[in-house]
Amino acid sequence: MKVCIFLLLVALTPTSSLFGQSRAVDYVHPLVGTANEGQTYPATGVPFAMTHWTPQTRAGEIKCVAPYYFADTMIQGFRGSHFLSGSCVPDYGSVTLMPSLGALKTSAVDRASHFARASERATPYSYKVDLADAGVLAEITGTTRSGMMRFTAQHEGDGSIVIENNARGGDGWVRVDHKAQEVTGEVPVRREYAGSGKLAGFSSYFVVEFSRSFTAEGAWSGVNIRKGIAEQHGDGLPLGVLPVAKVATTTGGAAKAAASLPTVSTRPGFGTYVRFPAMRAGETIVVRIGTSFVSVDEARKNLRAEIADWNFDAVEARAKAAWESELSRIEVKDDIPARDVFYTALYHALLHPRTFSDVDGSYPRFAGKGEVEHAGGFVYYDDFSMWDTFRAQHPMLTILDPDREVDMVRSLILKGQQGGYLPIFPAWNSYTSEMVGDHSSVTIIDAYKKGLRGFDIDAAYSLIRKNAVSVPSPEEGKDGKGRRGLDSYLKLGYIPLEDHIPEAFHKDEQISRTLEYAYDDAMIGTLAAALGKMDDARLFQRRGQNWRKVLNPTTGFARGRYKDGTWTTPSDPASKQSWITEGLPWQYTFFVPQDVPGLIESEGGDKAFTAKLDRLFDGGFYDHGNEPSHHIAYLYDASGASGKTQQHVRALMDSEYKDAPDGLAGNDDAGQMSAWYVLSALGFYQVTPGVPEYWFGSPRFDDVTVLLPTGKRLHIAAKGAGEGRKYVTQILLNGRSVNGYKISYFDLVSGGEIIFEMAASRD
């Protein structure tokens, strides 16, 4: 039934196809992933925005609870959000506005309104809904750092707009300036994972302005309303993060657990309100909101620079044009349902990392204590879900938007310089050490090996090397700096089961850490060689072979190992183990992207390796809902069974991605799940980020053109792919037959034409 409702909504959503030819943005359905385990939300505004604007159905900044779930039936307001789309983390620095006619209601649950589902129109650039109980037709749109809302009264009555500070710790303030006719506020940001709950050293700030003068104001905390009071500081409870029921990230966890939580926050909520008496039916109030991570003054500057007037339609049109500019870098000619899935995936893959610097370049110092830095001539980014996005999202951006990727690399390097260590999973402009591995290094290396320049590679190398060889102090480790378990890794070449890290969110996972560090080290070795540092190259290339120390030669599977070299027993590769990250030994056994030929040899050669991959898929051990599986289907290429890569990649595209709210198999993880689809649908995937080549799969469309930023065009033709042909019989690059299963990054970005000759079967 939900799918039917969603398709009805899509049909009702106005697009340019009603008035002319459809454009790429018209095929995007932002409600995809808002049910089941996608953990997305209808993020409205522009690509890579500092703040996205969304309807809110769940109050508060609660870990693993997205602002919006499709199953919810009431809207509590419209949020300026910094939620990491598709994740199991808390929102931060967010503010919510809720309009209504009639009696004033302040708390999120009390003010919530039923809405006409058929009126809900979600696009990347705007959202529109009829709030039945509130008596308001609401519309929202946004720019990079600011937002705009238009509220239209559906009947006569006294109007109000409630402004809520969603601070996770119940701190901060909201202030009404009656003379200036504006509302301002500060939302302190708190860390997660390393330093969980501690103040992050910066806040989010906002300034709210209205197209019509308000005549009265007040402050509130929960249901306690104080008329005529212009300022509210905190919610009155002791400050700090309140615990909630555990919400897991794994499939079957986050959305299910969130659904069992009340829609109310763990805190009462607080803020201010403004009143607009005697509203007439059809009368409109336009609201514009500036945001910044530096100050109220910077939020006001951002607003003035990005939204100069009250023309909502013009801002919406600019947001639409911004999305069209990004999405139309890829032109899919096939008129088939998969086209909608593709552009929705591309939309999700273009939300993060987020812009963090203001229009004048100001941004809070990384891991700082209130200091302000300045990004001169580039955009500073944050919220890198790096354990996820190094795999496909960043390799996608190196093709579609290399200049932006360079700014992201510059941002990573600056974080390392300001904080002392290259961050492993930078979010909340802080160290987190969330997840395992050290893949910021790989993202920098990948960009450099692809010829991207404009950043200091020598400074980057110093930071990368420090992470790989310097054991952080206990205090640094608690703060999220450096590699966890590095001391044992340096001594033994693997992390033994005795190494338990109590202060970490992922407290064990020793074998996954070892495998991921070995991959990182191998890539560091290639960078060292490219920079002429041959002693380092040899050191890290040797360390790149540490995967062999945790793959048991008797069983052929990744396996827990103790300090004395003995293996854990018994060990079932099909069951969850404390020493594996968010997966199974079955999956992590195949995480040796730096040395796939060596892995094949260790498994007994091509036939044995192919048979083992068959057992993984046939046994149901592949899990596309989480990242450790994402490269596995492509490994058949290396064992001479490319037809099976094509078979499984196409099956995954068709089974794990749907044009419906429950259309994602797992957390989208800042666009990684979606970026996998984008690259795979084009016909290739980068199995080894850090090595500038992509492995062939099975293209999804007959006719695609990638408009490269250099002005060149890459035409991808695969006649019959759109109607279901999945097997590739021959590949031609600019008229010449391609030998092997890889194509270099440089061939892709040079433009030209790739022709896949497709067949319905492998015979």
- What is the rounded distance between the termini? 40 Å
Tell me, rounded to a whole number, the average pLDDT: 94
Helical percentage: 25-40%
Q: Beta-sheet strand percentage?
A: 15-25%
Shape: globular
Instruction: Just give the CATH class of one domain.
Output: Mainly Beta
Strand order of the largest sheet: 6-7-8-9-18-13-12-11-16
Ranges with pLDDT <50 over ≥5 residues? 1-19
Tell how many strands the DSSP assignment holds: 31
Task: Tell me the CATH topology of one domain.
Answer: Beta-galactosidase, Chain A, domain 5
> How many separate helices?
21
What composes the largest sheet?
9 strands, antiparallel
State the CATH architecture of one domain: Distorted Sandwich
**Rg over CA atoms:** 26 Å
Structural class: alpha+beta
Organism: Granulicella aggregans
Keywords: Signal
InterPro entries: 6-hairpin_glycosidase_sf, GH-type_carb-bd, GH92_a_mannosidase_put, GH92_N, Glyco_hydro_92, PNGase
Pfam family, one: Glyco_hydro_92N
